[in-house]
Amino acid sequence: MIAEGAANDAGAVLGAESMSSGNAVFPPPDDPEPRDRQPFGVLTPNPPLPEGHPGANGQRFFTIQRVNGNGANGKNDGVSGGHRHTLEESDRVKKNSVQRYLLKEAREKKKASSVRAMSTQNQPSQKTYHTKATGLAALTVSNHSSENELKLYGSCFCPFVQRVWIALEAKGIPYQYIEVDPYKKPQSLLEVNPRGLVPALRHGDWGSHESTVLLEYLEDLNTGPPLLPPGDAKLRAYCRLWADFINRNIVPNFYRVLQEQDEQKQISNAQELKDAFATLVNAADSQGPFFLGANISFVDVQVAPWIIRLSRVLKPYRAWPDPDAGSRWGAWVNAIEANEHVKATTSDDELYIDSYERYAQNRPNTSLLASAINSGRSLP
Amino acid sequence: MIAEGAANDAGAVLGAESMSSGNAVFPPPDDPEPRDRQPFGVLTPNPPLPEGHPGANGQRFFTIQRVNGNGANGKNDGVSGGHRHTLEESDRVKKNSVQRYLLKEAREKKKASSVRAMSTQNQPSQKTYHTKATGLAALTVSNHSSENELKLYGSCFCPFVQRVWIALEAKGIPYQYIEVDPYKKPQSLLEVNPRGLVPALRHGDWGSHESTVLLEYLEDLNTGPPLLPPGDAKLRAYCRLWADFINRNIVPNFYRVLQEQDEQKQISNAQELKDAFATLVNAADSQGPFFLGANISFVDVQVAPWIIRLSRVLKPYRAWPDPDAGSRWGAWVNAIEANEHVKATTSDDELYIDSYERYAQNRPNTSLLASAINSGRSLP
């Protein structure tokens, strides 16, 4: 409902001239094409399970997706094409592969539990990630636990989730928070993001993911205070430019400092991260305390989760220094820490210490992100 | 002028409720703070040179930027702080470093010219990048050579530039195209982007860079046909999600295929790129031919420069296969190739063959992007 109203408002911005142009990229509203053909991003509900299906008792362990004419052509050349066999044959092959998958999963589970047992015998006990917010964030979760058409799938320690969470709080948009164990992705999350990464938003029968995409989506809803300055194309571009800088320089460097095990490399990685923060501070309003001035906005929300993890994660694990008193940087950190929406989405310190130990020890299979950092590939 | 008009229109979208909110992120328009304090992204014109200054004859070789209280604190801890010496001392140090820089540059120039001479003696002659568009793109350059307050700094072979160029053409926004040799960045470009990367846009006394940021800027101008569907927050998010996919998966994989010298790795990299294109095709409208349907839009513009470089660069250098006739993928490639705005910004084939040879041979110092791919870091 929020979305529809906002959509109509925003549509009115477009002048008659561009809508009537023969060259218009989008057809006028009275032409149902091409949206009716394919409702982009709309989630298809699972059909009811047949009677006697083991999943009817709550155990849902496979879905069979029939694909015809929309997949690869089997030649591994990246080109789509029709299936070369019948749908029945396709179902049979997929059922077999599901069975193989389940067997493999059972084997790995068995192996993993023995590894856990070994590690408690031979090694100091390892801390693990939390699956439930604590402190003020727990209160916010409890205030947003009732059913809502707008659902945020998040994990309490995840900084990408916190971006979207801060924005929802700052805008006062009603939402439901759904805590997800990122190592045991629920089916409802996989429906919104097949890769199972958080944050993911479900809005009615539609869903999307990627924190920056979701922040832009919340802006486009035009509900509550804007985080990008409305109507100022140049200032909006400036904010997006520095948000992009955060995603390219601050986020990956944060994990490089944390995951690096070699002490000399930790130091040079930390220097890169410090330089990136210094560059960002130089781009900010000189008075501050926030990026654009007195109030929190888009760039602050993009970087806040990593700023609050400096004292909570990088300081204990990598001796990250506190800001100098009275510096512009210190004023920004303090403003972020004191902001009510940041506080409302932040758990107690212990949650971060525990949840990031696996990164600081660079344990295998920590996350797709951790593996991307280790292999020098784009973040997932 | 375009920007101001559009800004006012878009500002009207925001309802009275959110503007009057005490919690509003941006102050109401009658409050000059905080914009007056710091005009973000506004370029400071160089002051007139003093009489007798060597630069007065057209030779401009250094600028001295006085910084006090906005730089690092000298402790290399990423924290800003006031300078510890006077502005005069700062000027002296900077003049010396400019002199050192000029000496170093002269030495390297001498060395480079001798390397060039050697390479023509001992190696097969190497092709080099073009610095002037050819074919239909040359015609477009010549039609956009006269002075305009909106300036696109571009290099004729650069796909990131072509994104912005296609969007300007599709929207019919008046602009001036300024060809830049990316290996000899002019001062006018460095004023807009201190790193000297193209594309960069200058709009009056303001400038910005990064192709995706610039595409959003052109959308925010609300001039000409939109590329993101106006008023449809969900479909806009869908487009941004897949634009993000292109930037994370298709763009870096394109260069991994081209720069890789090991044949087995070329094959596995090509498979990753093919898989990424197949995923993108599956996300597109099933009828097409473009991503959202009958017309070119945001996602097409983001990916078009790499699609047209498949047949022009990856096919000759890495035997990239043509699309299967009649496939959805083939229909998309054909639609991109036949689009008038893509054609208007595309040079003759030889320009791409020549300009990308240095990537295909993975020569050192090819570009920041090529180095980032080699070292497994985020793209610049």
Short description:
The structure is a homodimer of 380-residue chains. Chain A is mainly alpha-helical and 380 residues long.
Give the tags.
globular; homodimer; Glutaredoxin; 15 helices; mainly alpha; two-stranded antiparallel ribbon; disordered N terminus; 380 residues; Glutathione S-transferase Yfyf (Class Pi), Chain A, domain 2
Helix/strand structural class of chain A: mainly alpha
Q: pLDDT below 50 for ≥5 consecutive residues: which ranges of chain A?
A: 1-25, 27-36, 60-85, 112-122
Helix content, binned percent of chain A: 40-55%
Gyration radius of chain A, to the nearest Å? 24 Å
Largest sheet of chain A: 4 strands, mixed
Read across the widest sheet of chain A, the strand sequence of neighbours is: 4-3-5-6
Oligomer: homodimer
User: How many strands of chain A?
Assistant: 6
User: Quick one: overall form of chain A?
Assistant: globular
CATH topology of the domain at 233-375 in chain A: Glutathione S-transferase Yfyf (Class Pi), Chain A, domain 2
Which series of helices and strands of chain A comes N to C? HHEEHHEHEHEEHHHHHHHHH
CATH class of the domain at 233-375 in chain A: Mainly Alpha
Which CATH architecture of the domain at 233-375 in chain A?
Up-down Bundle
Biggest chain contact: A-B, 101 and 102 residues
The total count of helices of chain A amounts to 15
Organism (chains A, B): Aspergillus oryzae (strain 3.042) (Yellow koji mold)
Biased composition (Basic and acidic residues) (chains A, B): 85-94
Domain GST C-terminal (chains A, B): 232-368
Biased composition (Polar residues) (chains A, B): 60-70, 116-128
